[in-house]
Amino acid sequence: xxxxxxxxxxxxxxxxxxxxxxxxxxxxxxxxxxxxxxxxxxxxxxxxxxxxxxxxxxxxxxxxxxxxxxxxxxxxxxxxxxxxxxxxxxxxxxxxxxxxxxxxxxxxxxxxxxxxxxxxxxxxxxxxxxxxxxxxxxxxxxxxxxxxxxxxxxxxxxxxxxxxxxxxxxxxxxxxxxxxxxxxxxxxxxxxxxxxxxxxxxxxxxxxxxxxxxxxxx
Amino acid sequence: xxxxxxxxxxxxxxxxxxxxxxxxxxxxxxxxxxxxxxxxxxxxxxxxxxxxxxxxxxxxxxxxxxxxxxxxxxxxxxxxxxxxxxxxxxxxxxxxxxxxxxxxxxxxxxxxxxxxxxxxxxxxxxxxxxxxxxxxxxxxxxxxxxxxxxxxxxxxxxxxxxxxxxxxxxxxxxxxxxxxxxxxxxxxxxxxxxx
Lengths: 218, 195
Description:
Structural class of chain B: mainly alpha
Strand content of chain A: 15-25%
Distance between the termini of chain A: 25 Å
CATH topology of the largest domain in chain B: Nitrile Hydratase, Chain A
Helix content of chain A: 25-40%
Helix content of chain B: 40-55%
Largest sheet of chain B: 2 strands, parallel
Strand order of the largest sheet of chain B: 1-4
Radius of gyration of chain B: 18 Å
Structural class of chain A: alpha+beta
Strand order of the largest sheet of chain A: 4-3-2-1-5
CATH architecture of the largest domain in chain A: Orthogonal Bundle
Shape of chain B: globular
CATH superfamily of the largest domain in chain A: Nitrile hydratase, beta subunit
Shape of chain A: globular
Low-confidence stretches of chain B: none
Order of helices and strands of chain A: HHHHHEEHEHEE
Mean pLDDT of chain A: 96
CATH architecture of the largest domain in chain B: Alpha-Beta Complex
Distance between the termini of chain B: 36 Å
Oligomer: heterodimer
Mean pLDDT of chain B: 95
Number of domains of chain B: 2
CATH superfamily of the largest domain in chain B: Nitrile hydratase alpha /Thiocyanate hydrolase gamma
Radius of gyration of chain A: 20 Å
CATH class of the largest domain in chain A: Mainly Alpha
């Protein structure tokens, strides 16, 4: 979707403001919500892409006005309601009012260490890769209303395949409900001037990781 | 937010979906075990062990596996700074970051200013960090749009030839491994130690 989360190249957000001696969490609730996201993700009802889309579909003013962990809180609330695990009335009441929904897995303390790795997103390939290192490719000019990992600032632009990363779970398909639908993943590199025009920094090169359905030969 | 998150946690635990002890362990891991010191060790090893560096740049996931990380760092890619090429990592679409080797990202990495500007004005972003690179240095920005995760191997500072791996690791800052900073010099570390 063409949402406010797709920020590459936007102006007006001001300077980057690093914080000296930044703590890992700025308040205890941030750690709890991070851990809840990891733990609930491990139930296997949704994957990382569906979690991302839940945050991307927050209203634009809410997205831009929320801290990272506030977005994670709102995104998780939306998911647990959508998957029938928690009722809106329970969120409003702040306590459980109904029996739990049946779930295949439950996370215990013994499982927690496993959650510290994301797991692999590489899958066996059904077909050989269409592109090889050095090929010129044009990024598709497409504007799906669902989830995509093709940022707006590269759509329609020509780049060069720099690396073939293997065949990976395709986020667009997962969020659309089509399953993992693995596709070849490539690193595609662009000249700054191709993306930003003559005024661009001449020494700039930008790369993205792009799945094969995002690419056409150029 | 504290109350809202506490309410969510009590609902999820009352319903038995999560175990509060498991949440404690996850929080503790990110607060005390997983952080940029892991990446710093990897970089210091790469600076002192050419064979390891070759392996790291070719296949970082495999190269770092024997180092005893808390979780396996899948799809990890190490990109090496050179005199004429500086690397910088961003995620314009969300906040993808190599958690397994750098821990949780700082607030600025997840902020709109960084996510919007890194790909169009990386030298401006570097200036916000007080870093200026030679005009002719190529700046390569890696937008983390998939599950690939990037760690920058900064250049080894001069005057550290006889330093041990452990001592070298003290020069490797988190920002140097994201590409918004450079490794500290021996002079800078002396100043830091004195203050």
